[in-house]
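Note to self: keep these together.
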Amino acid sequence: MAARCDQCGKGTAFGRNIRHKSSGRWERKAHRTNRKFKPNLQRQSVWRDGKKVRMRLCTRCLRSELKTARA
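Structure:
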């Protein structure tokens, strides 16, 4: 199953790790390796159209959901 938020669609992002051991002058350029940034997904039951639905939400959407539920 893909790591993707059911509400906002946030998914895996790609970036690079940089080794700081060999940083400095351009003759010794630091090594870079690829890495993934995965969203912090939580399985949560939320109310949608009067029904309780289980969704995989990122923590940002979960926080927003809690704020709108209180208001």
